[in-house]
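TA notes, week 10

Several of you asked for a full example with nothing omitted. So below is the full record: structure tokens for the whole chain, then the designed sequence directly under it. When grading your own attempts, check the secondary structure regions first.
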């Protein structure tokens, strides 16, 4: 009777519908509940029909035996199924999990049902965990990695909240021992549901170059953009397009995007339609910011509040070979932007500058430095004019942005995919790096910090040696560096020599010092400024020389205005290029 009633009850309550392989604690709790109800039902059945009943302690004993037997059978079935899957799988990868915390436990629990992975143990930095077990697997001291590396195929880093500095240390330690490494998704990816904990992925160089996040000041962000009409020149470029996407999250009235590259405008147009299919607040304009009438008409017609001037030629060798085009696009356009902004009483105008403007050794850097001087000159002149609505001119200066066009990271990726070689100009070249998202957020926040004529410096963190960067990218791909001593390697590194006008390292300060601001990653530079009237008069002369295609005369004026750079250096570098 008990067997018939029990089977009927289990069928009606779905006990046999669950897959044994994926049984968890919740399934066993329901099993205990079913067995309790079964015992109670049989007891009531016996009372109704006058059957001989067991003593109370025997009912308890029966409940224990029933729970133990049914649970034990299901555990055996579950583990047998997992064993069969392992047996049938010809190539099971053995994995060691670095991190015996919550993420490591979740990953272990998820992978134990996988027929592709077999967990052999854990590593953790916490000495109190060494020698203990998690899900039946030992937790080891990371110093034992080299001794145990024959027992596993790869290490999975399962500490999504790890600070980036420590993450790089762990990755470098594992790579130095020639052990393959992967990682779990980030906390944001797991929480948002984009990726499950067991979606193992390779570690990219961007993961190691990113700094530990300093959350943006929401007040600074929102007060800068909310309900404003924004114009972004060079809006289809790396920085300009990211400024667009960051600004869209801050409820602007409208965003105007200006760029002179038809191909780039088409690409950003597709991205915008995919990301904001129902949004009508973005207007894309194909045009040239060296045309003053074009700028004046747009600023007047659209009632622009803020201009981010990100349009520039930034590739050093190209500008070095085409100085007239570089000066017109980088310098003359900046003056035209300032003039049109003053004429149309635009509230804020922000120049996106570069660390190459500091003590420049090339035409590109010198042209950007002169653009800074132009913005400062207009700021000073504007402050001296009374009874007029002021336009606030400011400059933001920072270094290399990860994955921007022309950045070494995408270039090295392409060279590695093609089998090498990776080309580096000099073994000792170092550069600063910042994520494009962080740079754009910081640029936006400077608007609320500006009083006019400010040069804001973004804290770029620690500089990175380009040679180390290339080697790390090769190792992250699981490849070997090809050298004379190791000709069987996969990717060779070739040193081509410094290009014309290239520096070994970049700086952010011309002279003086920097002052802190309300934001911990934004500083103000204290730098001397030549006579503004003289600068603007000379820039007009420079514009005439450029229009006459007078390369020598243009470079002479440029070197006169940017005293740290001389045209004779340009000529010398051209001869040796």
């Amino acid at each position: 009777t008990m067997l018939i009633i029990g089977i009927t009850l289990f069928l009606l309550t779905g006990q046999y519908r669950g897959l044994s392989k994926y049984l968890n604690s919740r399934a066993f709790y329901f099993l205990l509940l079913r067995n309790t109800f079964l015992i109670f039902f049989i007891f009531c059945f016996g009372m109704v029909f006058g059957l001989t009943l067991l003593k109370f302690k025997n009912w308890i004993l029966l409940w224990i035996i029933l729970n133990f037997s049914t649970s034990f059978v299901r555990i055996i079935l579950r583990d047998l199924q997992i064993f069969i899957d392992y047996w049938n799988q010809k190539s099971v990868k053995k994995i060691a999990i670095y991190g015996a915390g919550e993420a490591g436990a979740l990953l272990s629990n998820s992978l134990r049902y996988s027929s592709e992975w077999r967990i052999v143990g854990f590593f953790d930095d916490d000495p109190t965990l060494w020698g203990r077990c998690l899900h039946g697997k030992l937790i080891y001291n990371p110093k034992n990695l080299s001794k145990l590396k024959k027992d596993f195929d790869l290490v999975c880093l399962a500490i999504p909240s790890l600070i980036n500095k420590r993450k790089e240390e762990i990755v470098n330690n594992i790579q130095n021992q020639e052990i393959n490494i992967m990682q779990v998704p980030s906390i944001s990816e797991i929480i948002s549901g984009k990726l499950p904990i067991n979606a193992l992925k390779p570690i990219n160089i961007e993961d190691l170059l990113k700094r530990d996040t300093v959350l943006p000041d929401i007040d600074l962000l929102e007060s800068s953009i909310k309900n404003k009409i924004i114009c972004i020149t060079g809006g289809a470029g790396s920085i300009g397009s990211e400024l667009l996407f960051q600004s869209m999250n801050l409820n602007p009235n409208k965003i105007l995007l200006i760029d002179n590259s038809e191909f780039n405008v088409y690409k950003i147009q597709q991205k915008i339609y995919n990301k904001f299919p129902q949004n009508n607040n973005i207007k894309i304009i194909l045009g040239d910011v060296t045309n003053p009438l074009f700028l004046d008409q747009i600023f007047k017609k659209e009632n622009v509040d803020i201009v981010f001037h990100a349009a520039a030629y930034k590739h050093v060798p190209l500008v070095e070979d085409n100085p007239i085009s570089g000066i017109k696009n980088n310098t003359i356009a900046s003056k035209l932007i300032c003039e049109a902004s003053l004429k149309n009483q635009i509230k804020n105008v922000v120049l996106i500058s570069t660390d190459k403007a500091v003590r420049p050794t090339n035409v590109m850097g010198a042209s950007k430095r002169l653009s800074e001087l132009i913005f400062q000159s207009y700021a000073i002149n504007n402050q001296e004019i009374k009874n007029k609505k002021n336009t606030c001119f400011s400059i933001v200066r920072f270094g290399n942005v990860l994955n921007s066009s022309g950045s070494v990271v995408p270039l090295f990726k392409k060279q590695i995919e093609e089998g090498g070689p990776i080309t580096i100009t000099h073994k000792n070249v170092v550069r600063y790096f910042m994520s494009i998202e962080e740079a754009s957020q910081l640029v936006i926040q400077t608007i609320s910090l500006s009083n006019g004529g400010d040069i804001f410096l973004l804290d770029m963190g620690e500089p990175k040696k380009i040679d180390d960067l290339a080697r790390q990218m090769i190792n992250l791909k699981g490849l070997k560096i090809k050298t004379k001593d190791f000709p069987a390697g996969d990717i060779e590194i070739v040193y081509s020599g410094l290009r014309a006008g290239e520096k070994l390292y970049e700086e952010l300060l011309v002279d003086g010092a920097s002052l802190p601001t309300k934001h911990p990653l934004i500083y103000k530079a204290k730098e001397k400024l030549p006579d503004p009237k003289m600068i603007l008069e000379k820039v007009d002369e420079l514009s005439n020389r450029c229009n006459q295609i007078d390369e020598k005369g243009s470079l002479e004026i440029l070197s006169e205005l940017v005293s740290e750079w001389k045209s004779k250096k340009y000529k010398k570098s051209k001869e040796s290029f």
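The chain has a mean pLDDT of 81. Use that as a sanity check on your answer.
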